[in-house]
Amino acid sequence: MARIFITGSTDGLGLMAAQLLSRQGHTVALHARDNARAHDAHAALPDTAGVAVGDLSSIAQTREVAAQVNDLGTFDAVIHNAGVGYYGRERVETEDGLSDVFAVNVLAPYLLTALITPPRRLVYLSSGMHHSGDTTLRDPQWATRPWQGSQAYSESKFHLTALTFAVARKWPAVLSNAVDPGWVPTKMGGSGATDDLRLAPVTQAWLAVSDDAEALVTGRYFHHRQPRPPHLATQSPEVQDRLLEYCADLTKVELPAAASAD
């Protein structure tokens, strides 16, 4: 049985994946934004291996989450599920002066990847909307552009997918894959979403623990357990390295050159 840590797992797809993996007999640790949500997480999954607490829109608190996860021990897989949507939202600036969409959807997964003891498998929750993302890293904080929430979200998922493939390229000992869970009626997806919610947590859970040959791959983009072609630019080493350099400059933490998963 495996040990898995899941970000953003007090509700929605994160909690659904945690419950699915727990039913399968795996050990799951959760993440909550604050102590109240941590209490809810314990109630939803009483046999959790622990709950790391911290707001992933904050660089300092994200570092604390990484330290808490490492204190819980090593993990076989980490599912980067936490995310910020865009429906009906204006631009929100974090304590670090960043767009919260970029901070939570891109920078937090980068920083957690860099600071958590590398697991055997990494799974990042992307979106089909990443295909509409801008590839140039032009004003990623929307400091000078007029705010467009859907485009900001699309760009954040483009960057997250590029991060997934950068980790796959730089850490060949770790399986790093991206998942499009579909447009499903969660709090983030909204009530008008049309995809099957029951299928939404299945692929990330499968990639985290399965010994199926189809799951023992790296640098892939999946939808409902089937590989799909990602935006071609996400696979460009030049695009990936530009993103890694930008994230390292913001966090003052570089992604280690290589990782070996025990």
Explained architecture:
The structure is a single chain. By secondary structure, this protein is of the alpha/beta class. 37% of the residues lie in helices and 12% in strands. The protein has an eight-stranded mixed β-sheet, with helices on both faces. α4 runs parallel beside α5 (149-170) and α5 (149-170) crosses α7 (237-251). The chain is globular. 47% of the residues are buried. The mean pLDDT is 93.
Chain oligomer state: single chain
Unreliable residue runs:
none
Report the structural category: alpha/beta
Instruction: Name the helix and strand elements from N-terminus to C-terminus, one letter apiece.
Output: EHEHEHEHEHEHEEH
SS element count, helices: 7
Q: Residue share in helices?
A: 25-40%
* Sheet with the most strands, sense and barrel status: 8 strands, mixed
Give the mean pLDDT: 93
Gross morphology: globular
First and last CA, distance: 15 Å
Radius of gyration: 17 Å
The number of strands is 8
- Within the largest sheet, what's the order of strands? 3-2-1-4-5-6-7-8
Beta fraction: 5-15%
Features of this protein?
eight-stranded mixed sheet, 262 residues, alpha/beta
In short, what is this structure?
The protein has helices at 12-23, 35-44, 59-71, 100-115, 149-170, 202-209, 237-251; strands at residues 3-6, 27-32, 51-53, 77-80, 121-125, 175-179, 221-223, 226-227. With 262 residues, it is of the alpha/beta class.
Mind sketching the topology for me?
Elements: E1 3-6, H1 12-23, E2 27-32, H2 35-44, E3 51-53, H3 59-71, E4 77-80, H4 100-115, E5 121-125, H5 149-170, E6 175-179, H6 202-209, E7 221-223, E8 226-227, H7 237-251
Parallel strand pairs: 1-2, 1-4, 2-3, 4-5, 5-6, 6-7
Antiparallel strand pairs: 7-8
